[in-house]
Amino acid sequence: DSGVTQTPKHLITATGQRVTLRCSPRSGDLSVYWYQQSLDQGLQFLIQYYNGEERAKGNILERFSAQQFPDLHSELNLSSLELGDSALYFCASSVGQGARGYTFGSGTRLTVV
Amino acid sequence: DQQVKQNSPSLSVQEGRISILNCDYTNSMFDYFLWYKKYPAEGPTFLISISSIKDKNEDGRFTVFLNKSAKHLSLHIVPSQPGDSAVYFCAARGSLGAGSYQLTFGKGTKLSVIP
Q1: What confidence category does residue A97 fall into, taking pLDDT thresholds of 50, 70 and 90?
Q2: φ and ψ of A84, to 5 deg
Q3: Which end of chain A is more exposed for a tag (fewer CB within 10 A), N or C?
Q4: In B, which residues are within 8 Å of A44 by CB distance?
Q5: What are the chain B neighbours of A55 within 8 Å (beta carbons)?
Q6: pLDDT under 70 in chain B at which residues?
């Protein structure tokens, strides 16, 4: 157990729908990062939050959004889902913003049918 | 534009021998490099890292080498064990400004250690 909790582990939904992925960071970690891993792709950075504020955006689609709440958990919202959004979504956390080694959760596998 | 490349999708090594995983990068501004290991159905776990001001870092059976002029790093595992069978991701850290950083990952190399 890495200390980073992601729910749900698996999610199957239809095209056009909206889903919310949840991440609880490791105790004491203020930064949360979201990554997407599609088939045969590396981990693509989506977005970073630090202590409730958005700090960096990567290749995140406009249909996707995220937030970090006062208790530091984060949610990634995916809307108007397409087949190509099927992927593993990982959340990672770190104490600061230095990115000297994140701690990853075990991921949410999203399947869009 | 892939800034971090792992050109070998897979690698098979006999137990007890050396495993060498390679990674190339294009951005000379990367200042820190990491290797992550990932087992099926789990998230990546941090393995070893190296600062851009060093050329070698060792931790037990794992050694990372950095060649800045060639923009190349490698992970050596000696001796390889069956439990090392996993996907290995190379990652590089880049600054986003204002004290914020981002890790850019390669696509991974699947290592199989054969007993």
Answers
A1: confident
A2: -70, -5
A3: N
A4: 105
A5: 96, 98, 100
A6: 1
